[in-house]
Structures are given as C-alpha cells and as structure tokens.
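sorry for the late reply, my laptop died twice this morning and i had to redo everyting from scratch. anyway the thing you sent over, i finally got around to it. pasting the sequence first so we're on the same page, its 639 residues, then the predicted structure underneath. double check i copied it right bc i was rushing
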Amino acid sequence: MKWLSSFRARLILTVFPVVAVITLATLVLAEWKFVGAYKRLFAEQFESQIGGFTAAKKKRTEALSVVLGRLAKSPAMLKAVEQDDFASALQFLRPELEELTSQRLQSELPGGAVRGGGFGTRGDGGSDKVGPEAARGGPRIPLSQTPYIAMIDPEGNFVTAQRKGPAGGRGAPARMKEENDSSAEFRRKTGRMQWLGDRRLEDILQGQQVGYLRVEQGEDSRNEQVREVFITPLRDQESGEFLGAFLFGLPLQVLAERILYEQTKRSEFGEIMSGVWVEEGLVSTTIPKESRQEIAAQVAAAIQQSHKSQREITVRVDGVKHQLFYRVLNPDSPFPLAAQVNLYPLEALDRELAELRREVGGLGLIALLLALLLVLWISRGLSGPIRELVEGTHEVEQGNFDVRVPVRKNDELGRLAASFNEMTAGLALQEKYRSVLNAVADRTVAQQLIEQRGTLGGELRHVSMLFCDIRGFTALTEKMQPAEVIELLNEHMTALTDVAYQHGGIVDKFVGDLIMVLFGAPVSTGQDALRSVECALKMLEVRRSLNEISKHSLEVGIGIATGSVVAGCMGSDQRLSYTVLGHSVNLASRLCSVAQAGEIVMDAETHEAARELIQAEPMPPMQLKGISEPVHPWRVVAA
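ok and here's the structure:
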C-alpha cells in the first residue's frame, strides 16, 4: 500500500488511464467511421435503386394516366357498368390494356424477349407459357406478365363478370371462362378491399390513384408478385354518380433486384437482397421465403411506430444479423402503404470490426507497455527532487520556515524547488507580520503598517467619525446570561462591521455596545463625510433587517462629526492601537448620545458634505458636555 502512495505509482496510475482512454476513443472513432462508410455504401445502392424505381414510376404513370382516363369516359364502358354487365366491360377493357402491357414489356424488358409484337420464346431457347390471347392470334404475353384487370363495385368489392338474362333481368352469376379472363390467373385471398374499413371507396377515390397489390400467380402457386395498380374511378358523365372503378395492374420488374443481388453476392461484404413490402407481406426473389414473414412484420412495426417514410433497422435472416433499409413508395396515397426494402448482411462488418478491435487493442497494449517503460525511466529522475520537496514540506508542517531545498536543474522541477524556497521565505515573513496584525485592530491599518506607507506614529488628518450605540442595552441585558449577551453583541457588531468595511470605513474600537468607525484615516477617499452618512443609513437598514430574524430587537442611535484630529498608533511596545484624538471625536460621541433610537445626528460640516444625499432638519442649538461652544446639529429625516 505504501508503494501505491509513491510518486512513481501515481504517475503510472495517471498515464495508464490516459493511454487506455485514448486507445478506446481511437477504437470508437475508427468503428464509427468504418460503420458509417459501410452504411453509406449500401445506402447509395439503395438510393440508386429507389431513384430508378421512382423515375420509371413517374414515366409509367404519365403514359398510362391518359389512356386509362380515356377508357373510363367511354360511353360503351359506362353503359355496361351501369347495367352490371361486367363481362362486356372487361371485354371492352382487355384489348386496350393488353396492348398497353405489350408495349410496356417491349420498352422495359431486355431485347430478344418480344418478337413480332408478342412473346413466343425465352432467351434460353425454351418456351414460355403464354396468356389466353395467344389462341386468338393477339399479342402473346407470358403468363407471369399477364395484366391484372379487375372491376370494383362502389362498395369496394372485386366483382366477377355477370351476364344479362334473356328478359333483360340479371341472370345467375357466372364466372367468365378462364381463357377470356386474364385476371383469373391471379387469385387474391379476399374479394374485398379490407383496408377500406368504414370508409367509402367513393370518398377516397376522387381521382385516379396508383397503389400496390400482392397477388398469387396461378391458383395453386405459391409464387407471389407485386402489381403496380392504377385504380381509375368510373362516374356517370351526366349525373356524376359513382359507379365503381376498374383496376389495371402490371407486375413490378425484378430484373434490377436480381442484377443487384448477383453483382453483390460475389463481393466480400455480402449480397444485397431486395423486395417490396405490401399488404403486410414481403414479395422478393432474393430474400429467403422462410424469412419473409418475420421481416415483413418488423417492417410493418417500424412503419407503424415511427411513422417515418424511410428508416433503417436491424433484422435477422437465417440467424445472421442484417441491416435493412426501407422507403415507402406511396407515402401520400390513401391506399395501403408499400415500401421498397433492401437488406445486406452485417456478418462481414462484424468480422471487420472484430479484426479492428483486435488490432487497435494490440496497439493499445503495446502503447501501455511503452508508457510503463517511459514512466519508470522518467520517475527515476523525478523521485529524488520530489522526495526532497516532500521532506521540506514536512519541515514546514512542523513550523520550520527556514528550510530550503536544493535547486538542481533549470527545468520544471528546478523551478518548483525555487518556488518552494520562495514560499518558505514568504511564510517566514508572514509569521513576522503576525505580531503586527495582532497589535492592530483593523485590516487597513495593518496593511498600511506592512507596506510602511503614511506616518502611523502620529499625524493631523481631516476625518469623519461615526459612533453607533445601542439604546436601552443595559436594561435589555441585565437579566440575560453572559453567554447570551456576548452572542447578541457579536451578531450586532459583525453585521455593522461589514457595513463599515463596505463603505471604506476603519473600525477604530468597540466600547461595550458602541462601535466607532473612522472615515479618512489612515487613508482618505476624498468623500469621507459622504461615505460616513451612507454607512450610517445602511447600518440602520441592516439593524432593521436583523430585528426581523433575531431573537432580540435592538435600536441604535448614530452620531457623526467631521473635523481635524490627531491620528496614529498609541499604546505600548507590546500592544498598539490605531486611534484618533481631538475635538471632533468628542463631538461625534456627544451627538451619538443625543440621537434617539433609529436617528442619525450630525454636525454642520458633515451635513454640508452630504446634503444632496439626504434630507435633514436643523435641531435647536444645544450645549453638549465637554464642548465649550453651543452646537447646531442636524437630524436626518429622509434619505
């Protein structure tokens, strides 16, 4: 334990935490920058992908809105819907919409997929299944790209086609033949837009809207697709009555998703997987099926909790931690939200961070060892001078102020030794001053004696004297215990002494319950009379404040006189007292005895100096004891 208190141990215990903190800070900063760069890399990939998606969406929307709006106003279309003849409505829509689908495929899919206005073969030489229009010689569209066309009634239900009965009444419902109903290839899990809740479709579908649906390809297939759907309202052109809507959905292309996955799969950081979150589910060709449900739930929770259109969260895929970015594709849409989702594994990042921690930790240990060797080498040159300083300090504690330590070098320790010697010399001089301080009654007088300014042995000075005496003190204290009397006086004198010092006064003496304060000796401020009156006013104020909290209430009377007096130190060789003598001293004492409780009485000269500060009234001329001539005092009536 003694070694722990040594300088060497303290130096080691000081340096080691510093090195450890610097190492830790370096590690934290490096990790922060490394993780930031890693995340920026994938954020840029995400922004690039979402930017391309947004641009393509805008282009598609602008191109399709005009055609779909035109179809919604077609008289034949509106007539069929009004008569609930959805079969005719769909037959009217299908050629136009399938032509739009074919045009989109030719413009967006890679070359070689479309030949002769339709799809016949795949790029690998095999054959694709084709949509139902192939049998009629129309544009051949792969089943996976077949447009999703559906009718929606005013209540928000997906409706099947119905034909009129022979008498003009509605016949029994009958689903259209599959070869004539392309939407039959895509089975939804419900026939109603459940997200409508209590809302009416007419209220939220004021104009054409773009939304996203999750559909199943084939009745028994587990493959899902995300369809970008254009929902176009149908209204009677004359009355404006809401008749329902028709839905045109095209699959979102996953080509960019696959390309990004294949490009990054071979990188050292791991593959970037993508998908689209829609209708509480996740549709993806790169994210494992068994993980999609959990990831979709976490995305849904994040969107619901944060209400942010984009965010990044941490998820687990196949037991591996991944960072997930998402951005809502339709934040302002009244329809269900959909979000583009990208995620990448953090396994490579964790490995890099572990390697970074090992490297920085190893460097930190090396730094600690080097610091230890350096401390041991430096401490050998420091311990000797420091030991001498410690021994000198012990001598000073014993009262030996004559001790000195050798100054060996002109470095920091040498200057410290020199400062120590100067300190002990100052302490020795301070001890000599102590006798002077014990011989005087006021700190200003003591300072004058120390600096040897002025003639404290006796001089003629123009001084204002203030006497403050407690009224009725004898009657108040005759039945009090001595200790209580002393406590009362100490409280009173302490407060009034502070006031005197605040106004530049010198406390000359305490005589029983009286305090005598000088203004102008041994040093004059040039406004001694004015300061004495200000001090008297403050004394009355402080005394009134003390009366509110003190056990005993005291009243004082104050007398002030200004004039020439003899000032100097008087007494014996062993004890000195700085005081003043003269006519004005006696006058101030007599005026104090004249002042009633709470009054300030002053001579004419003091009043002349302070007349702008106070309002005073002359008192009748009076003959005071020890004063040969009548005195014309003034009483303060207001400040």
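The two ends are 68 Å apart (CA to CA).
thats about all i looked at so far, will dig more tmrw
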